[in-house]
Amino acid sequence: MKIINIVGARPQFVKLAPILKAIEKHNAENPDNKITEVLVHTGQHYDYEMSQIFFDELSLKDPDYHLGVGSGTHAYQTGEILKHTEEVLLKEKPDLVMVYGDTNSTLAGALAAVKLHIPVAHVEAGLRSFNRKMPEEINRVLTDHISSLLFCPTKTAVENLRREGIEKGVHLVGDVMYDAVLLYLSLAEKKSNILERLNLEAKSYALATVHRAENTDESGRLEGILKGLEGIAKNGLPVVFPVHPRTRKRIKEAGFSISGIMLIDAVSYLDMLILEKNARVILTDSGGVQKEAFFFKVPCVTLRDETEWVETVEAGWNTLAGCEPERIQVAVSNSTFLKPVEDSNPFGNGNSAYKIVKVISDKTSWETF
Q: Residues in domain UDP-N-acetylglucosamine 2-epimerase (predicted)?
């Protein structure tokens, strides 16, 4: 059996890592039913800090194909990925294409495959923020509706699909990002010296990330978030802000003057794990960072008006604060008092990748169009 993995952005590299390890284990245990894996990197993220460093740190194999698409509008990026991915699929003729998450690479890869009548497996299926203004939401919904195998991280995701009439090919497997944290945390603790480099002490700082288009492309929202972060720092809690390249560009274009915040370049996955685990509170618009905050039991303030990871809010570890400075600062002040509703993990037990590979290894179980 031949499968093609399509990735293009840093969260997808993290999700891919446990899958590749699970395929390697499966092949060792099942020599008569091996999975041949072909890796396609679309190039949606292309800076070293956003791409290659993840392959280096996570010991991922080099991509078999690098499409080199780069940045651009949503239409341009999706179109270029679609065009070049089709060329790869026609050449490789895989049995299955696997896509991850909710980026333009996800949707374009799925479209290229389904147009050629190749089954699609969507890892992290069923997520919904119910905000159709988010490009990620459009990518999720469309990908789910053309996928043959839908690997859901939570029961909520399964229910979201059921309400949309999708029940065939749906598998509740848990979250591969939790697998990744369990796989790489000990390595991060051995290799990362990010706290020493930044002169930080554990539980003495706030960690912030901002990258979603709804926050970076609307100057009013971005300004509100930055003012909120400045207020937190002025109130005595240092704020460490690894800045996404797109966010840095928007800050420069808007001419925002920022004071009191520790702005640093985007960091590697291992460094990010250490920063997250040791933060007093995390402020973010990233879905992955919300979950990692939950995994580490660090209070999280989400800089959005909704979240697809509702389990983190229901469990008592996440607060939605939007972009208003005062609301953000109050949420951080209240985060000290956040307590879990119950001590459970709705994201599985760390063997999600194994479950996924077990399903894809049995071709007779696939539901296809």
A: 32-360
Are the beta carbons of 100 and 129 closer than 8 angstroms? no
C-alpha to C-alpha distance for 298 and 219, rounded to whole angstroms: 29
Question: In Å, how far are 42, 50, 51, 81, 83 from 68, measured between CA atoms?
Answer: 6, 14, 12, 9, 12
Task: Read off the pTM.
Answer: 0.93
Show which residues are catalytic: 211
Beta carbons of 159 and 125 less than 8 angstroms apart = no
Task: Output the average pLDDT for the chain.
Answer: 93
Cα 335 to Cα 8: distance, rounded to the nearest angstrom:
34
Token representation of residue 183: 């796989």
- pLDDT band at residue 339 using 50, 70 and 90 as cut-offs: low
DSSP state of 50: G
Q: Which ranges of 146-267 does DSSP label H, i.e. alpha helix?
A: 155-163, 176-191, 194-197, 213-216, 219-234, 245-254
Whether 326 and 152 have beta carbons less than 8 Å apart is answered as no
Which letter does DSSP use for residue 283 in this model?
A: E
Rama region for 156: left / alpha / beta (φ>0; ψ in -120 to 50; rest): alpha
**Cβ neighbours for 196, distance < 8 A, ≥ 6 positions apart:** none
- CATH 3.40.50.2000 occupies which residues in the chain? 2-175+348-365, 194-335
- Residue 69 or 237, more confident: 237
Please state the CATH superfamily assignment of the domain spanning residues 2-175+348-365 in this structure. Answer: Glycogen Phosphorylase B; (3.40.50.2000)
What is the model's pLDDT at position 147?
98
Instruction: Quote the tokens at residue 110.
Output: 């799925």
Between 300 and 345, residue with greater pLDDT: 300
Could you say which architecture CATH assigns to the domain 194-335? Answer: 3-Layer(aba) Sandwich (3.40)
Please report which confidence band the pLDDT of residue 235 belongs to, taking 50, 70 and 90 as the band edges.
Answer: very high
